[in-house]
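Researcher: Let's run the pair from yesterday's discussion. Sequence first, then tokens, for each.
Model: Starting with the first of the pair.
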Amino acid sequence: MTQTEPIVETTTSEAFAAEWREWHRLHEAAVGGEHGFLAITSINWLNAEPQRFADAPGAWHSDGTGVHVALGDGEEIVVDGSAVRDGYDFGVIPERGGVTVGWGDAAIEVAKRGGYDIVRPRHPDAPIVSAYRGTPTFEPDERWVVDGRYVPFDAPRAITVDAAVEGIEHVYNSPGQVEFDVDGRRQSLVVFADKPEYGLFALFTDATSGVTTYGLCRSLSIPAPAADGRVRIDFNRATNLPCAYTDLATCPLPPAENRLPVVVEAGERTPHERGLR
């Protein structure tokens, strides 16, 4: 009789872990991409006075009509696939919006954050990109997938939160909050979304913040609520914001209501990069 190998069926936990690892692999690819936020080499705040920056072409300024760049001899940028010389008018950049143009192998991000126009060059040879070795995480654990309930406010609220950069603030639209239990204790998170039917997100800290996870903030995407308000919250997919890796970020911080008093040992941990500074 020929002995055969036993058939091993994939358990739910194995499937869950595999799905999480694929999700995190794709997330890591975006973080460590050649023009991802690790590639930012400077953050430059624009005003009415034209300014030149060592890591970008042209002289930049902003006014009531938007952002403008004047390019010198031999300088060009690539906008929507076309080379542009002499100069370019970007128009008014919306809050949290941005435009990215090419310059050689670099990408020049033009954005508005906290009411200010900024220019952030992104270079694929930035030291932090080549040194990046992935973000440490907790092992995926189905215990941290919790069922909750979305509770809408009577009317959406404009909530102002601080930023990782001192002196600016961000304003987000909050349609409500989600309620859930952790170890039998009721918790809640204020969530942000312009259209809840397309999904929600929350900024939060917990009792691991500043210990095993980044101290200022983590972010969590939450699928759109069901018709009866039910939501599935997967803390395994809690991720770091760019400010966890670089000081050249303007990340929002959580509202006071989102400082969870419980330990959430799930999702991304403090990046190695924070240990380098």
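Model: Moving on to the second of the pair.
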Amino acid sequence: MRVLVLIVMLTASATGQTATANPQIESAKKFYDYVKSLILKSADKMPEDKYPFKPAPEVMSYGLVLAHLANAQFYQCSTAMGEKTIDKGFHESLHTKIEILAGLKEGFAYCDAAFAKLTDAKSAEMVDFFGARVTKLAGLNNNTSHMWEHYGNLVTYMRINGIVPPSSDPQK
């Protein structure tokens, strides 16, 4: 009887799984989507009067880190797709919380579209990415890695200002 129950459970488990058309792209997009959500929540959580905050004079302010990330979505995702590199100049043009949030959303929409254009097969196409030949997927993954790097900065800035970062928020 136990063997029969086990067979039924394994069969039900296996049939409940669905194959995806592009598992590599979908897997990479999940990591990108997660850090994107943390960055957007971080941008929202920090009060606007703290956007100029710098823990040291030689580093970027909170707002500038976010503007940099907004710009990097265009810069890195266009390059990863083998297109002409796009530099929106957000470092210089975005100053208020509202402008920065809008820039982030615009940049993330651009990278979302880059992911949507790819299949697993197309993601293996080689492109020039800042002096290296890499796959399109590797270029997009580099962008995700860059986002994580700067999310770490945002976490430190929030902690210094007594704000719980989204990844540590028990209300998430």
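Researcher: Give me one sentence on the second I can quote.
Model: The first strand starts at residue 126 and ends at 129.
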